[in-house]
Amino acid sequence: MAAMLDEHGVDRGVEAATAAMSAEQRQQAEENLRRLIERMRRSARQANG
Amino acid sequence: MVDRVFDPDAMLDTLNAHRVDFVVIGGIAAAILGAGWSTFDLDIVIATHDDNLARLADALNAMQSAYETFDSRRIEPDLARVRSLTGPQLLRTKHGRLDVLKEAGGETYESLSPMRFTAPVARTSSCRRASKPCFE
Question: What's the ipTM?
Answer without folding.
Answer: 0.74
